[in-house]
Amino acid sequence: MTETKQVIEQTEKYGANNYHPLPIVVTRAEGIWVYDPEGNRYMDMLSAYSAVNQGHRHPKIIQALKDQADKVTLTSRAFHNDQLGPWYEKVANLTGKDMVLPMNTGAEAVETALKAARRWAYDVKGVADNQAEIIACVGNFHGRTMGAVSLSSDAEYKRGFGPLLPGIRLIPYGDIEALKNAITPNTAAFLVEPIQGEAGIIIPPDGYLKEASVVCKEQNVLFIADEIQSGLGRSGKLFACDWEAVVPDVYILGKALGGGVFPISCVVANADVLGVFNPGSHGSTFGGNPLACSVSMAALDVLIEEDLANRSFQLGQYFMDKLFTIQSPKIKEIRGRGLFVGVELTEPARDYCEKLKELGLLCKETHENVIRFAPPLIITEAELDWAFERIATIF
Ligand SMILES: Cc1ncc(COP(=O)(O)O)c(CNc2cccc(C(=O)O)c2)c1O
């Protein structure tokens, strides 16, 4: 029996069955490539759902991890550490905001943003206690914690987890009139992915984000952009909101914020929003730990120094132009921004992902019929050609 089979058997024996992974074991990774125990090489076209934008084990990020690991890794927030301040400044400068709250996972940052929005509604907007409402979009994915799944329109994400969070209104994604009609005097915030990832790389109509931000401004509603998957270069801009020159009231960041090396997430806003938190009102044991902050600073340096957002823009266009040449009745639509590409099929995409795996290309279906291609942003044209040959083969 191969080591791959042994590992999968062991995983299936003890692990909760909350995932349906492809039958491949990754034992080593470098750049855009991952390797299985038998030495087979695969191109990673998923990037851990855009947490590995900088490529697997980027040397500069790994070095930051090693250097910091030899100094101090965790202090708790009972004390200061020497990495948090510089990290705060880097994130504040990157986003143009003046306050940052560090967490660890994307969902934790989403929960933090929901708490900030509700408290802002009561303390700043003057909404009556316990009446604050959050507007979110059908098809959203904001994480797996109770607040995040309460926002979801997907029954399976919520089944058996009730009672869920009250005060949530769902509207169709991309529909500005629906947003206008959903806003009430009790609305705290509109939470939106500038590009919906898990829904299948859904790009909103041109001007939607801009119009939504204007409506929110007019109605004194916080515009919160969940850029956990779409942000940090993935869409071909630093933030997907940049495609419409929209600066949200609140950014939620995660995934590639840690360069695929260490979990770190955050909520970024101005003091009028994040100032609602006072000591004892929110926190996290690992939030803002020096190891995460050191790794994240290196991850952000790589993002900027290697101009990864622009690479994503240029190479995304190059890749999609090649994909558009594929003539297949199985392909319903090809869409994307930068190296955030979805190929919607007329049938379930799982088999196509399995076939691509056999050809050495790793990707994952999302929402049944969509294959998501989201390679690390360090990929080259030649490597995209390699991927294209295999994609063309299966169609
Ligand atoms: C837009 C968005 N917001 C929030 C989250 C939650 O982040 P965390 O997973 O770090 O809590 C995501 C995560 N995105 C995502 C995509 C696909 C699978 C999975 C998975 O939970 O295995 C997660 C995301 O894509």
From TrEMBL:
GO biological process: L-proline biosynthetic process
UniProt-listed SUPFAM superfamilies: PLP-dependent transferases
Location relative to the cell: Cytoplasm
Keyword Amino-acid biosynthesis: yes
GO CC term, one of those recorded: cytoplasm
Pathway annotation: Amino-acid biosynthesis; L-proline biosynthesis; L-glutamate 5-semialdehyde from L-ornithine: step 1/1
InterPro entries: Aminotrans_3, Aminotrans_3_PPA_site, Class-III_PLP-dep_AT, Orn_aminotrans, Ornith_aminotrans_bact, PyrdxlP-dep_Trfase, PyrdxlP-dep_Trfase_major, PyrdxlP-dep_Trfase_small
Residue numbers of N6-(pyridoxal phosphate)lysine PTMs: K255
Gene Ontology MF terms in the entry: identical protein binding; ornithine aminotransferase activity; pyridoxal phosphate binding
Listed cofactors: pyridoxal 5'-phosphate
Catalytic reactions of this protein: a 2-oxocarboxylate + L-ornithine = L-glutamate 5-semialdehyde + an L-alpha-amino acid
EC number(s) per entry: 2.6.1.13
UniProt superkingdom: Bacteria
Keyword line: Amino-acid biosynthesis, Aminotransferase, Cytoplasm, Proline biosynthesis, Pyridoxal phosphate, Transferase
HAMAP family referenced in this protein's UniProt entry, alphabetically: Ornith_aminotrans_3
Family in the record: Belongs to the class-III pyridoxal-phosphate-dependent aminotransferase family. OAT subfamily.
NCBIfam families assigned to the protein according to its UniProt record, in alphabetical order: Orn_aminotrans, PRK04073.1
Purpose of the protein: Catalyzes the interconversion of ornithine to glutamate semialdehyde.
Protein name per the record: Ornithine aminotransferase
Annotated source species: Perspicuibacillus lycopersici
Upper classification of the organism: Bacteria, Bacillati, Bacillota, Bacilli, Bacillales
